Structures are given as C-alpha cells and as structure tokens.
Amino acid sequence: MYIYDKILSYMSKQTKKYTTKTVAPGLAGINQAAELIKQGEVIAFPTETVYGLGADCFNVTALKKIYRAKGRPSDNPVIVHVASTEQVHDVANNVSETAKKLMDHFWPGPLTLVFEKKKDVPDIVTGGLKTVAVRIPQHHVAQAIIEQAGVPIAAPSANLSGKPSPTTAQAVLSDMDGKISLIIDSGPCEVGIESTVLDVTGKIPIILRPGMVTYEMLSEVIGQVDRKASDDEKAKSPGTKYSHYSPNANLTIIHGPQAAISRHILIKISADAAAGNKSGVMCYDQTKRNYSGSVISLGSQYNLKEVAKNLYEAFRKADEMALTNVYVEALDDKNEGSAIMNRLMHAANNQVEEI
Ligand code: TXA
Ligand code: MG
Predict the structure, then answer these.
(1) Which ligand 1 atom minimizes the distance to the CA of 129?
(2) Architecture of domain 250-354
(3) If you average pLDDT over every residue of the chain, what do you get?
(4) pTM of the entire predicted model
C-alpha cells in the first residue's frame, strides 16, 4: 500500500494540469458542470451515494481523462448515470419486465442495473464487456447536470484508485486537486456507500455488489435474487477483482457476542501498546464508552443508514490518526448490514477474528 501510495502521489504531481475550483450546487454551478461535460471535460458531482467523476458517456477522449485522473485500470467498467427511464434505451438493449419493475420501484436511487449494452456505447465505458451498468441517481444536482448536459454521464466514484469513495467535496478535493477543473460541493452524501449493482441480463438477477438497496428489499419486489456471485459472475464485474481501499493501518474485524467483543478488543489494544504500537477501534455509539484513546464511532448500531453514511469518513479519519492496528466491531450480515460488512471485509482483506 505504501509503495502504491507513492506511485499515485508521483502520478498526481505529473498530472497537476488543472486549477480545481469548488463551487456551490446552484444554477450557475450546474450550468458550468454541464458545459464542461459537453466540451469533453471531467467534473466531480454529488450523488446520494458518493461523489462521482463524470464525463459524456459517448466521448472516448473525455472518458480516458476519467481513468487518468483516478489512476484506474481501463478494463474496470464505470456506471452510466441517466436522468430518465427513457434514456436507459440510449445505452441498453433488452430491458426485461423484471428490470422495469425494479426501475419503477427503486429509481431514482442507489440501485445500478447491468443490461446488455447498445453497440454505440464505447468499450472504455464497459471495460470491453457486452453489458453496461446504469442508474438514475436520486440527487437533484446529479439529475440536473445530466439533463442539462443532454447525454448520459459515465461516472465512477471520484476517489483515486485505492482510496475510499469520497462522501464530501473536501475528500474529492484531497484526491483530485489539479486533476479536474470543477467540483460541485453539495455537502455530505446521504447514503454514504456505493450503489447496489444487480445483473439483470440472466433469468435470475445476481447481486454483484451489495448496497443499501438490500437483498431483502430486492427479493420482496421481484422474488428470486442470487446474492452471492460465483467466481464466473464475479469476472463479469471486474471492479471486484481489483484491490479495494485498504487503510494504512492493519484492519481486523472482531465477530462474536457484544460483551465479549469489547473485552477482546481491549486486550488486543493493551497488548499492542505493550509492544509499542498505537491501535484504535471502530465501534458504535452504544459501545464507545467501553474504550478510550483512538475511538471512532460509526453511529448507532441500531441505525445502519447512519453507519453507512459515516463509514468512508471514518476510514479517512483512521488514516489521519496514523495507527498500526484498527479493530472493528462486526455487524450482522443481513439487511443493510450486508453492504457495510462487504466494505469492511474488503478494507480488512477478509481478516476476521471469531471469538
Ligand atoms: O453509487 C455508485 O455506484 C457510485 C456513484 C458515483 O454512482 N459509483 C461507483 O462507481 O461506485 P465505481 O466505478 O466506483 O463502481 C462501479 C462498479 C464496479 O464494481 C464495476 O465493476 C461495476 O460497477 N460495473 C460497472 N459496469 C459493469 C458491467 N457492465 N458489468 C458488471 N459490473 C459493472
Ligand atoms: Mg469506486
């Protein structure tokens, strides 16, 4: 991670070619963003999930700028953001009845659907796949920019590859300063983690990435849903094969009965301290009083929407604290907890201690 950070920081010095402006989400900012997109530039804009780095989805030169700004491998496909269900047909073929039901029910919102792609969607959007991922974001600023630009907007999360997705304009700026010309600052994102990605090209829809539109919510609307992508299906979503954000500190998830978790973490922290290492904990409002020192509460453990909203800022905070180890209290792997545990598991490189 250290060497990777160094390479990214070297690359960022080499490519500091823009003066990055942060503007308010008013009419002037929206018009400016839409104009830049029409001119083939890249801008950062808020969505309800995380900030996105957007460009005209039919302009290959503009799309290359996204990959360059992020330092992202170009076979990792990006999500196309549209402003209406009609616009889906500009990029996708064979929109099934099941997909229509899902669009009716969950759009605009944090659900991305993977369809068969139209021929004129450039390969750079889809990483060479025959499918395209599409969603209508719920954020009014995102919708206004797509409408004004008059084209679907391809947008990955607005972080450097390997960093957490940004949920504030400040986080975008810290990753993208000098790499893009405009950031629209609309405050913190409401949802806080990336959209659910659901492949609807087959008979039974498959969750490729869990999100706050949960397995349980999807099943209630369309019946059968496959929640665990097989290795074959994972290969269909190349994003899953690249290393995700992992914090500077060594992250371990502690799973077990609540009282035992806190006891276990306290023992680990004092053993670390005895060895001269500074450790911290990510916990919840209900458990934070069990600890002292470097304690980051993710919010109430009974309000998983709040926990998701706080998660990536907590990751960034932990990096700033320069800790050797961070211990995270596990959540139940169901409902919204599944999406949060998925991000924690990636960040922890699947390191879980069962107690
Ligand atoms: O909430 C979100 O989804 C945010 C906001 C900006 O909309 N976007 C986002 O984009 O998280 P990104 O590029 O960071 O993640 C896109 C995910 C990746 O895991 C990628 O592999 C998957 O979607 N994906 C994109 N196109 C795909 C396709 N055609 N088939 C399967 N998976 C696809
Ligand atoms: Mg991303």
Answers:
(1) 29
(2) 3-Layer(aba) Sandwich (3.40)
(3) 93
(4) 0.94
CATH number for the domain whose boundaries are 3-234: 3.90.870.10
Q: First CA to last CA across the chain, in angstroms?
A: 29
- Integer CA distances (angstroms), 237 to 41, 127, 157, 207, 233, in order: 26, 9, 15, 10, 7
From the CA of 191, the nearest ligand is 1
Atom of ligand 1 nearest to the CA of 137: 7
Average of per-residue pLDDT across 288-303: 97
Extract the tokens encoding 140: 């009014």
Q: How far apart are CA 102 and CA 100, in angstroms?
A: 5
Q: Where are the domains of the chain?
A: 3-234, 250-354
Ligand 1 pocket at CB < 6 A: 47, 49-50, 52, 76-79, 110, 112, 114, 126, 129, 131-133, 137, 155-157, 194-195, 197, 208-209, 236-240
**Same-fold call for 3-234 versus 250-354:** no
**Atom 29, ligand 1: residue with shortest CA distance:** 132
> What is the tens place of the pLDDT at every residue in 162-177?
899 999 999 999 999 9
Condensed to tens digits (0 to 9), the pLDDT of residues 47-73 reads: 999 999 999 999 999 999 999 999 987
